[in-house]
Write a structure and sequence with these properties.
The complex is a heterodimer of chains A (186) and B (1088). Chain A has 186 residues and is mostly helical. Chain A contains six helices and five strands. Chain A has helices at 3-10, 46-54, 68-80, 92-103, 110-137, 150-185; strands at residues 14-19, 26-28, 31-33, 42-45, 58-61. In chain A, a hairpin with a 2-residue loop joins strand 2 and strand 3. In chain A, helix 2 (46-54) runs parallel beside helix 4, helix 3 (68-80) packs parallel to helix 5 and helix 5 packs parallel to helix 6 (150-185). The N and C termini of chain A lie far apart (50 Å). The chains are: A mainly alpha (186), B alpha+beta (1088).
Chain lengths: 186, 1088
């Protein structure tokens, strides 16, 4: 799975916007949207929000968790805990990137939020690498990783699977040899 | 004589605050929790000097140019006064000192501390100090005896001790007070005080009274109390003359007594009811300054006027008095004596006599008054009044304790409320530097008062109306309104400039988009609003000025009270004004609603209801044009046109707010859908401009009782729905197009709710309630209710309902007739003359004309889709009415062919619309509200009527003796089919019940047995035989019947066929009972 595909999936997340136009309910396969009243918040998927934003048809209301205090708290907790802590949204990274890139003027303290989310991401990826490392070192058969997001799984998947395959090959090459050696002994 | 209470002012940060006067009475000196001592030149001094004495200052005392303070670093320090130079540390404690006081001469300072010690230190020589040990808890207060021999102190251990200073011994000790472990936990500060000059009495606050103890005998001579003093007395303070005693309580009540007569002279209440923690008399005795635990300072002026009238002579006499006794007391009071210092005499008799002498001298010596020489403690030892001459307050023995305390007449009735100021609904307070001048459903006007730049930002919610604007606000506009057509700004007038009105008429099609009007001098704009095509401005001259949107001056009229706010919607103008003076926190507001249409008229003028103790915080029209108000307690009320223009509370925003300090700032109300749009404000009443606040939507909720129960919920829904229905009538009567779909949806919802309530009442055996509900139902719903009632076996109820149905049908018919007659008249009210004439020509024409789009209907400019319309389109005739976009993905539910057989009739309500019975209703619902019903529909109603009428008769016939009736009685009908009465029909149809199947099989054999039977007799006979069968056999037949049973739709079709055939039938008399029986048995069939 490509990162852009994950981002595409994230675009179905719902975000609140304040439209500056008036439109009746629109009926889409995914569900009904609207009605749009100027000045009144309405929930729409991210893809529509970004589209409207780019056409300057709305203001985006940042999600509740996209707040400096809350993110700081989460980052600190993430740093403190050994395991992965629950993230504010299953698509926090993607949403942050999308919203900050396209609607940073509607999000107070956008730069701080970007840094904080990046910190959170880095901490989690570091943890992920560390756990992958110990997983391989200890030659465990399985591991349980809670609270991982799709994007995080996606970043490590290609590398981890390939390396595990590789190692499996190496080991399987090694093992027949050793058994051979043993059989030779007898 | 009532004194004058000055408004309190902020003095220090929150916490214990103490106050005293300087010796001349010129300065008020306070200390507080912020560690500063402030020197105020009167209470109005906005820039007091201050001396920082520590982190916190607990107590202070001032005398002879020296200021001692007890501060948080466990020391008692001296500063010079008024320069504030530090003058060394007087003494130290192991913890902080809690109270300090000078003796009357200013030579010694006593300090009590939290380490249970009281120290008496000589000011000039801090090595000369006496320590008084004996308290077992922190010391609350200390007071010097004016003769400088004794010292009284109170402590948290509950004791009050009088000490001999020289011996450092206890003279007497009482345990009077509630115990506590620290000064901060003590309920009362218990600031006791010796009577000045004579030191004859010691006043000790004990609970909610003040005890007076006599010197030397230390007996409790009297108690001063007052009804108003319901809480613990915190502080007592003697007036400098020693005649009056002021006491202040934890509850913020200050009472002043004349001690000799025990008369209460003054009662004052702290304006906020905070604890008063310090009280001080001015040296002249006419002012009383007090502080509360919130750091505020207050002042009472002209306290005990009678006394102060004599103050000057007394004071000048005091000098004489000093001279008289000069030398007498020097033996005792030789420490740092200043010549001006008064000598409190020891002997009562001497005082009395010398007092009189002095008094006389005083009156003779009036010219020599010298207020500059006033000294604290010398301020009128003998405040004689002619009538009190014999009862010298300072020296006489206190009156007997039983003397009644007579009350001076004080007005304690309802107090008038300050009238609320004029405001713009949807604006935040004008003193803010960044504020909203207006936030309504059209846009936002923000005002920035940053120095040096003043600016106004105008933003439209709908960018299609206009792009946002940014103006400089050089004129200082304070008020604004914004509409689809224009922006209106106004500034109050100043000395040079008149009050100005600026209108940015952006929707104007010419190039001049702006106009300015100057109001006459000394007339200020107080409130303004924009309607459609007009501007209304209420001014301080109690005038309401109307302008056209283009700037023409229109009508001017006077208002009957000062304006609170104005708002407009379409042609409607609402003015809220002060009807009079409200009392006890209430406002007396009146509301005027005017229509400024072609005919200017006053629609209503009535008092505006508000919650108790609240003011108006928002006023406006809903998007649909109903007047709404919001008061400061968050109750949203709506003008209910169908209830004689009364106000119905529709929402309480406080119900939804999480904490007490959270508020909702209402910006708009909508009726379709029902919404209160508001901004949640955390911890304030209004939102800040940044971060940009988000709008929240609150639903309507009518405060009915027991809304937790199912019944209460449905009642609330019903009344809410019918309240919201009002605006359709209003809009259509004022010629706007209405959302007919929404209206019919609302009507349907109401009928459904009524049916649900009906079903619930049926379940609860409340038949009377059922009938009441039926009265509220439409005719079609009543028919359904009849079905429901008869199906659930309540025949009596069904019967009552059918009479109601009959009445309703008649009413409907009459209404229709009336409407038909009214039709031409109605057209006259429509705005367009030409359209009216043509319509009149066709008045009462066929339905084809009715169904054509009506060109005379105006677009509702407030409906959301019309917002984008330009101003020309407002008056443009509409040729196509709005068609809601249909949902291509919606699964249609109404068209399902099979009708569920469940006993719950409610499940099928929407589907029933397709039945011939209710076709008239569905027809009428699709057509506009005021359209007359189509003739076809009418005939249908009549047929319903005909069908109903005989049924009732039949039932009453049947009741007494059902057996001889040729038709099967109800019970057997339940088992039999709905087809029974029409044998020919039975032949053609497929059998539906076990009995029918059986009958089909066995009719031949029955006929063979008794060939002379006719159809009805045959069935009767068959039934007897069927019953005779065993249960198992019958069951098998029923089983067979079930499998073969036709679905609901087919049955319905047959019903129709029956009806059609009946119409074709010539024998009317025979057909009616049959069809009625048909119906009844149809109900019965469902109940199987």
């Amino acid at each position: 799975m490509d990162a852009s595909e994950v981002e595409f999936v994230a675009e179905k997340e719902v975000v609140q916007i304040i439209p500056n136009f008036s439109l009746d309910k629109i009926y889409l396969i995914g569900g009904d949207l609207g009605p749009f009243n100027p000045g009144l918040p309405v929930n729409v998927p991210v893809w529509l929000a970004l589209n409207l934003k780019q056409r300057q048809k709305c203001r985006i209301v940042p999600p509740e968790w996209m707040d400096v205090d809350k993110l700081e708290e989460m980052r600190d907790l993430e740093r403190k805990e050994e395991t992965f802590t629950p993230v504010p949204s299953p698509y926090y990274m993607e949403l942050t990137k999308l919203l900050l890139n396209h609607a940073s003027d509607n999000i107070p303290k956008a730069d701080e939020i970007r840094t904080l989310v990046k910190d959170l991401w880095d901490t989690r990826i570091a943890k992920l690498r560390l756990s992958a490392d110990s997983f391989i070192n200890q030659q465990e058969a399985h591991a349980k990783l809670d609270n991982l997001t799709l994007m995080e799984v996606n970043t490590i998947r290609a590398f981890l699977l390939d390396s595990l395959n590789c190692m499996y090959k190496l080991r399987s090459n090694l093992q027949p040899g050793s058994t051979k050696g043993q059989s030779n002994d007898y | 004589m009532p004194c004058e209470k000055k408004p309190m002012r902020y003095g220090h940060s929150e916490g214990h605050t103490e106050v005293c006067f300087d010796d001349t009475g010129k300065f008020i000196v306070t200390c507080g929790n912020d560690g500063d001592v402030r020197i105020w030149e009167g209470l109005d001094d906005d820039d007091p000097r201050f001396i920082t004495v520590g982190e916190k200052a607990y107590s202070l005392s001032l005398k002879g140019g020296k200021l001692v303070t007890a501060s948080s670093n466990n020391t008692v320090q001296i500063h010079t006064f008024p320069d504030g130079e530090p003058d060394g540390i007087l003494t130290r404690f192991t913890t902080n000192a809690t109270c300090v006081t000078f003796n009357s001469s200013g030579s010694r300072v006593a300090a009590g501390a939290s380490d249970f010690l009281v120290k008496v230190v000589r000011v000039g020589d801090s090595s000369d100090q006496k320590t008084l040990r004996g308290h077992e808890a922190p010391v609350l207060s200390v007071s010097f005896d004016p003769k400088d021999q004794l010292l009284a102190s109170s402590s948290c251990d509950g004791s009050v001790v009088v000490w001999n200073i020289e011996d450092q011994s206890q003279v007497t000790r009482w345990t009077l007070l509630p115990k506590s472990n620290d000064v901060s936990n003590a309920k009362s500060l218990c600031r006791l005080a010796f009577q000045p000059l004579s030191g004859k009495l010691l006043a000790v606050p004990v609970e909610d009274k003040v005890h007076l103890y006599e010197r030397d005998t230390w007996s409790h001579v009297t108690t001063l109390s007052d009804d108003l003093l319901s809480q613990l007395v915190n502080v007592v303070s003697w007036s400098p003359c020693g005649k009056h005693l002021a006491a202040a309580s934890v509850g913020g009540v200050i009472v002043i007594w004349d001690v000799s007569s025990k008369l209460c002279l003054e009662r004052q209440k702290h304006e906020k009811g905070f604890t008063v923690c310090s009280v001080a008399w001015s040296p002249c005795g006419s002012q009383l300054v007090y502080t509360d635990t919130e750091g505020c300072v207050g002042l009472l002026e002209r306290v005990c006027e009678r006394t102060s009238a004599h103050k000057a002579p007394q004071n000048s006499a005091a000098a004489d008095f000093d001279d008289l006794f000069d030398g007498d007391d020097d033996g005792q009071m030789d420490e740092g004596v200043s010549p001006q210092r008064p000598r409190p005499p020891e002997d009562d008799d001497v005082i009395t006599s010398t007092g009189r002498v002095r008094n006389r001298a005083a009156f003779l010596d009036e010219d020599s008054l010298d207020t500059g020489s006033l000294k604290l403690g010398a301020g009128g030892k003998f405040p004689h009044n002619d009538d009190e001459d014999d009862d010298d307050g300072g020296s006489s023995i206190a009156p007997p304790p039983v003397a009644p305390v007579s009350l001076q007449p004080v007005y304690d009735g309802p107090l008038p409320t300050p009238p609320q100021r004029a405001f713009q609904p949807g604006s935040t307070p004008a003193h803010l530097t960044h504020r909203f001048m207006m936030w309504n459903s059209v846009g936002i006007v923000r005002c920035y008062n940053d120095e040096p730049e003043n600016s106004v930002d105008i933003e439209f919610h709908d960018s299609a109306v206009h792009h946002s604007m940014h103006l400089s606000n050089a004129l200082g506009h304070k008020m604004a309104d914004i509409s689809q057509e224009a922006v209106l700004l106004a500034c109050p007038g100043s000395d040079q400039l008149a009050s100005k009105l600026l209108c940015l008429h952006f929707s104007s099609w010419d190039t001049c988009k702006e106009w300015v009007v100057d109001l006459p001098s000394e007339e200020d704009v107080q409130a303004l609003c924009l309607g459609r095509g007009f501007v209304a401005v209420a001014t301080s001259a109690l005038l309401l000025r109307l302008f056209s949107i283009g700037g023409l001056q229109r009508e001017v009229f006077s208002l009957s009270g000062s304006v609170v706010c104005v708002c407009a919607h379409g042609d409607q103008l609402c003015v809220v004004y002060h009807r009079g003076r409200g009392f006890d926190g209430d406002q007396a507001l009146g509301v005027q609603l005017r229509s400024l249409g072609p005919r200017h008229r006053l629609i209503l003028d009535q008092p505006l209801p508000l919650s108790p103790n609240s003011h108006l915080s928002w006023m406006g029209f809903s998007a649909e044009g109903s007047l709404c108000s919001v008061d400061s307690l968050g109750v949203v009320r709506m003008l209910n046109r169908s209830l004689g223009n009364s106000w119905t509370p529709v929402c309480n925003t406080r119900d939804t707010s999480k904490s007490k300090s959270d508020h909702y700032w209402v910006i708009a109300v909508h009726e379709n859908p029902p919404q209160v749009r508001c901004i949640p404000c955390k911890g304030s009443r209004f939102p800040p401009t940044l971060p940009r606040p988000a709008v929240a939507v609150l639903p309507f909720k009518i405060p009915l009782c027991q809304t937790s129960t199912e019944k209460g919920q449905m009642e609330e829904q019903f009344w809410r729905s019918s309240l919201l229905q009002n605006h359709f009538g209003f809009l259509s009567s004022s010629g706007f197009e209405i959302d007919e779909e929404a209206e019919s949806r609302g009507l349907k919802e109401q009928q459904e709710l009524l049916m649900k309530m009906f079903a619930l009442s049926c379940k609860l055996q409340r038949e009377f309630r059922c009938v009441e509900l039926a009265h509220m139902m439409s005719q079609n719903a009543v028919t359904l209710a009849i079905k429901y009632a008869s199906r659930s076996g309540r025949m009596g109820l069904a019967q009552r309902l059918s009479t109601i149905a009959l009445e309703k049908a008649q009413e409907e018919e009459e209404q229709e007739e009336e409407e038909e007659q009214e039709e031409p008249r109605r057209f006259k009210e429509t705005p367009r003359l030409c359209a009216r004439q043509t319509e009149e020509g066709e008045g009462g024409g066929g339905e084809e004309e009715e169904e054509e789009p009506r060109p005379k209907k105006r677009v509702n400019p407030f409906s959301k889709d019309a917002a984008a319309a330009s101003e020309e389109s407002v008056l443009k005739p509409v040729t196509v009415s709005r068609v809601a976009r249909s949902n291509p993905f919606k699964v249609s539910s109404g068209a399902s062919p099979a009708q569920p057989r469940g006993a719950n009739i409610l499940d099928t309500i929407p589907n029933r619309k397709s039945t011939p019975l209710s076709s008239s209703s569905s027809k009428s619902k699709q057509s506009p509200v005021l359209k007359p019903l189509a003739p076809r529909a009418k005939s249908k109603t009549q047929s319903t009527l005909l069908q109903l009428k005989p049924k009732r008769g039949e039932q009453s016939e049947e009741r007494p003796d059902p057996r001889p009736d040729p038709r099967p009685e109800p019970k057997s009908r339940e088992k039999s089919s709905d087809q029974t009465p029409n044998p020919e029909e039975t032949e053609n149809r497929r059998p539906q019940t076990g009995f029918q199947l059986w009958l089909e099989d066995h009719s031949k054999s029955i006929l063979a047995d008794s060939p002379d039977l006719d159809q009805s007799e045959l069935i009767k006979e068959a039934m007897v035989r069927f019953r005779a069968l065993s249960a198992e056999e019958r069951l098998t037949w029923t089983e067979r019947a079930k499998t073969a049973m036709a679905d609901e739709l087919r049955k319905r079709k047959r019903d129709e066929e029956v009806g059609d055939e009946e119409v074709g039938d010539e024998e009317a008399s025979a057909k009616k009972p049959k069809s009625a029986g048909d119906k009844l048995s149809a109900f019965a069939f469902h109940a199987v």
